[in-house]
Amino acid sequence: MRISELSRTSGVSVASIKYYTREGLIAAGERVGYNQTRYDDSHVARLKLIRALITGGGLSIAATQNVLAAVDDDQLELGDVFAVAQRASSLAPETQPSPSATERVLSFVRDHGWDVGASNPGIAMVASALESFDEVSRTDLIEILTPYAGAADRIAESDLDNVPVDEARERSAETIVVGTVLGDTILAGLRRIAQEHHSKLRIAAATSAPDHEHA
Amino acid sequence: MRISELSRTSGVSVASIKYYTREGLIAAGERVGYNQTRYDDSHVARLKLIRALITGGGLSIAATQNVLAAVDDDQLELGDVFAVAQRASSLAPETQPSPSATERVLSFVRDHGWDVGASNPGIAMVASALESFDEVSRTDLIEILTPYAGAADRIAESDLDNVPVDEARERSAETIVVGTVLGDTILAGLRRIAQEHHSKLRIAAATSAPDHEHA
Do B195 and A132 touch (CB under 8 A)? Predict the structure, then answer.
């Protein structure tokens, strides 16, 4: 198909297609004859993946480049695709967390029985949040780590269930990338929904308990 | 204390203190005599809260204004403080999700037994992620909603456990704000850590199972 049809089918403007091609996010089309380029379904699929990552997941162009390079690299193991996707979708804290906050996270990670490398981007994310708790004199809030970690175990298990071992590598790599990037948004969204629900339940329980026995 | 001491104690520059005062994030100090203003411990505490929200939580000045106004408003119920904090820390999707994606989320929410208003910001967040799944032809990934929702219930319950009913309103309001804003980061961080751990476990299981019985 021509670039105009590729644009219609994918919903991505011609200008954006040309930009993504220049940035190496999408392979150039096949040049046929004078001033014409032909594209196929693989270009449509790639453009939709790019849109999901950039528009849906809020990734930058640079982060999208890294993630797509990991999807395309047949030699890269799936565990490493996870690492690339995690890094691409992690907002690095503005300042490096202190060694003591980092040590508290590493010690929690060990006690929880998790075996992870010190370069996992989650460690700095959690450490910088703990520093903010310290700053507002709420060191006690570190206790949420235990229930949160239990929830994270469950989430990670279901993330991995989406990547069956007998699947083609490219599909698995795409699942890892899309799931890691969009999973944070889904989780943050469901947390907001659950907070409202449970908050209403507790308010209802607190106000009806004393004297509305048969209500 | 003078502004120079306030700056030293809080770790916030004099220029930022003046800026936050102009933007109404912090009350003006008490004017004493010629060209001098006096601040007290409440200013130190407020500056630390602002830093936690802006530097730690990545909130904008405008979002921080909304959140602090909710903390300061004695008439606002704590359930509404949650709503304000949620909204301030939710990145609105670039485009409004389609009615069909929104309806799928609302139907999931009903089936899960959650009672929430249609304006809960989590609904649009989840709907836009589902649209991205559709776009890359991975509608099957909607199935992660079930395990994720179970995890979200657990997280929301522990968020609410941090707000005991017999506590002073201001402290509860601050906990809600700090916990809601930083909780997303902690959760995203722990998810990355758990993903690496469980991914290693599965790879180890897959490679050792066939012929390393006694390894």
Answer: no
Q: Which residues of B touch A109 (CB under 8 A)?
A: 193
Q: Are A89 and A181 in contact (CB under 8 A)?
A: yes
Residues A82 and A160 in one domain: yes
- Taking the C-alpha atoms of residue B130 and residue B137, their distance in angstroms, rounded to an integer, is 11
C-alpha B108/C-alpha B96 separation (Å) is: 19
Asked if A126 is an interface residue toward chain B (Cβ–Cβ < 8 A), one would say: yes
- Total count of domains within chain A: 2
Quick one: A26 and A67 in the same domain? no
Residue B11 sits in the same domain as residue B73: no
Query: Nearest Cα to B93, choosing from B79, B105, B111, B107?
Result: B105
pTM for this structure?
0.88
Q: Is residue B19 part of a domain?
A: yes
Residue B30 lies in a domain: yes
Domain that holds residue A144: 57-208
Write the DSSP assignment of B74-133 as a string of letters.
TTS-HHHHHHHHHHHT----SSPPPHHHHHHHHHHHHHTT----TT-HHHHHHHHHHHHH
What's the CA gap between A43 and A1, in Å, rounded? Answer: 10
A 165-204 → B contacts, CB under 8 A = 165, 174-175, 178-180, 182-200, 202-203
Query: Using CA atoms, how far apart are residues B206 and A94, in angstroms rounded to an integer?
Result: 39
| A56, A125, A194: residue with CB nearest B185 | A125
Going residue by residue through chain B (215 aa), what tens digit of pLDDT does each one get? Answer: 999 999 999 999 999 999 999 999 999 999 888 888 899 999 999 999 999 999 888 899 999 999 999 999 999 988 899 899 988 887 666 678 899 999 999 999 999 999 999 889 999 999 999 999 998 988 899 999 999 999 999 999 999 998 887 888 988 999 999 999 999 999 999 999 999 999 989 877 877 766 544 44
Is the domain of A127 the same as that of A38? no
User: Looking at the structure, do residues B43 and B70 belong to the same domain, yes or no?
Assistant: no
Handedness of CA B73, B75, B81, B87 (dihedral sign): negative
**The pair of three-digit structure tokens given for residue A204, joined into one six-digit string:** 């209802």
Choosing from A36, A56, A76, the residue where a domain stops is A56
Locate the chain A residue with the closest alpha carbon to B138.
A175
A202 in the same domain as A130: yes
- Give the count of alpha carbons within 13 A of A193, CB side only: 31
